[in-house]
Amino acid sequence: MNGIADLIDPMIAFRRDIHAHPELAFCEHRTAERVANMLRDAGLEVHEGIGGTGVVAVLRAGSGSRTLGLRADMDALPIDEMTGAPWRSTRPGCFHGCGHDGHTAMLLGAALALVKDPGLSGTLHFIFQPAEEGHGGARKMIEDGLFERFPCDRVYALHNWPALPAGQIATRPGPIMGAADKFRITLSGKGGHAALPHETPDTILAAASVVQQLNTIVARGVPPSANAVLSVTEIHGGHSHNVLPETVALGGTVRTFDPLVQDRIEERIRQILRGAEAAFEVQASLDYDRYYPATVNDPQAAADALAVAQTVADARLAPEPAATSEDFSFMLQARPGAYLWLGQGCGSDSPPLHNPRYDFNDDVLETGIRLHIALARHWLQD
Where does the Peptidase M20 dimerisation domain start and stop, copy by copy (predicted)? Predict the structure, then answer.
């Protein structure tokens, strides 16, 4: 395994380079080009432009018939970075605030190590995916023929996890990440003078009532045994102290793990809006988008992954799923596999994901590389 140790410094340098040059969904041109060139220079078969800016490299070894996919995401977030790191983002309003730079570096390191010393028999696909952050890059790659062109009997992915101690690995059978829905509500009246509220439907008052009622749905409309989150995150309306606005817009998110609970929450939102229309004489419209399904691990794939992870580091069964979402869910709907968390926490004050002071912990990069290699060699045993 000396080859892995030799890769750590180059992969840290690579990670910091793409951190300094982050790219948003479907714009990962520089990142994808760097990845593709390094894979091609290593002697791998490389395919570009899959699902937009996706890259897949293929490693064939031995005579085995099994196939495996290992996936990493490449996109950044539309956030201004506040880390002050020497390798901080050079692009205002864009930075790797979720560690996808680290994910890309770990999978790239595993590919470079395995091409020199495969130790496996079968076909391994290294999948570098665009647009995970809310834009469904995994779905785009699948629609572009990912699994037809690059068959995978199983597929694995990992995500750094600040809540876990650095280097610790966790996963679980069944749901591990939530389904993500987003909603936008528009309440419309006719607008008018604030001193004459009896002449004008009050969209502000209607919005306040709707927000209060929305926050009762999980507590009173969902079984206590179910895991669900509903958060109102936006309110927009009004522009003057003496004008009742014609419209008020609300927005937010719903996270669930059970489609029946998901259905129940959407229906309760619609019921609340019908009530608001009657009570406040406004018109209510709802745009409800179920943009990511729940990430659900295949039980056997998760059990295998946990056993493999225990040969690499401290690995534990995750006690419960997270309400955050992940578009790897689309790949797990198409193929059996599992999603894993790799701890990167540096104590209780570690910045969380999507925080402007977050940065990937380079100390866990080697563990991630070794985990990818171990998963590949387990499924594609020589």
Answer: 182-275
